[in-house]
Structures are given as structure tokens and as C-alpha cells.
Amino acid sequence: MRSRCLVVSLASPVRRRQYVVSAMLGLALCAGYGPRAFAEDLFSLNSTSFRVGGAVDSAQVFNQDDCKGDNRSPQLSWRNAPAGTRGFAITIFDEDAPGRGWWHWAVAGIPASVDRLPENASSSGFLKKLGAVEARNDFDTDGYGGPCPPAGKPHRYVVTVYALNSADLRLAQGRPALMFDHEIGTATLGSARMVVTYGR
User: Is the pTM here over 0.85, yes or no?
Assistant: First the structure.
């Protein structure tokens, strides 16, 4: 029995955007692929240090002033980067901090052959061995600076890995994270992210 695939034309641009993912999944099903196989092909980010939507453990919390964590950068791994990827970058950003938000980590120059970082890659020298460079975070230190929000409502921390079309963004160690973010944006082929929370 022949299967039929329905192609829907949506006149409204707003409606089109809402149905992109559904349409892609429908095409995959029509081609004989199940939802699980389709999901496994997506660029994705995972972590043994973080759980999606979960609270950050003390190992990753900042260790200065009244924050008493270990300030260890999280273990991260990713898969299914887009074709043409020549390098990776990672950022962690607090979108709930007052003003423009708060940069906790930005690292670029991760080779395309790498698909994971161990915990504490920022302080252990692992990133330097790869030839990667880290930005100056908003604590005014180079490398990773963990969550340390004011007391009150928990903040959301967006962890993003970027697949880049360039192996060299010409960024130097210690440049501001905002500069890293700009250069990463000019070379991004795709990204995967997770959001975690922390409050005091």
C-alpha cells in the first residue's frame, strides 16, 4: 500500500514559522523515519554536570565573596554538528541579571574534532592544550565564573554550544565576553543549548 504525504502551503508568514518543525518531522515520517530517529539527527548538547531545567550544583557555583562553590566549569558534550563545521564555541549567559545580563563564560577556538569538554576544563589547562581561548567574564576574570546571583528568585543560565564555519575567529585570551559573542555570531552555522537555574 502506498503512503501519502500531504504538503501544506501556508499563506501567512507567521503561521509558516510555527509549522517548520512539524513539517520537518512530517517529511521524516513520510520518508520512513520515526520521531526518535529524527530527533537523534539534531545538533544537541548534553552534560553530566547539568540537568536541563535543573539547579546548578555547588561544584559549578562561583567561589568568591558570599558564594561558596568550587567554580568548576561543567562537563559538556555535543553531537550531530552541521556539515561544514570547522570549530566550536561555548557560552554561559545569565539572562535574568539586571541590565544587559551577565556573561559567565565564553570560549572559542575549540577544534572541530572535539565533541566534549571534561569538568573543570577552564582551570585545568585542558582548553589551552586545545588551542582554545577564553573571554574575560563579567566577574572581570578570564575563563569560567559560575553562578552567583543576588539572594532572591533563581536565575536562568543559558548554556550554548555553537558550530562555526571558521577555525579562527581571531579572538585573543581575555578579550571581553561581549566581543566573543559578536564574533561567534558572525560565524555560527548552528547552535544547541540547555537552560539551568540557580538561586540563593
Answer: no
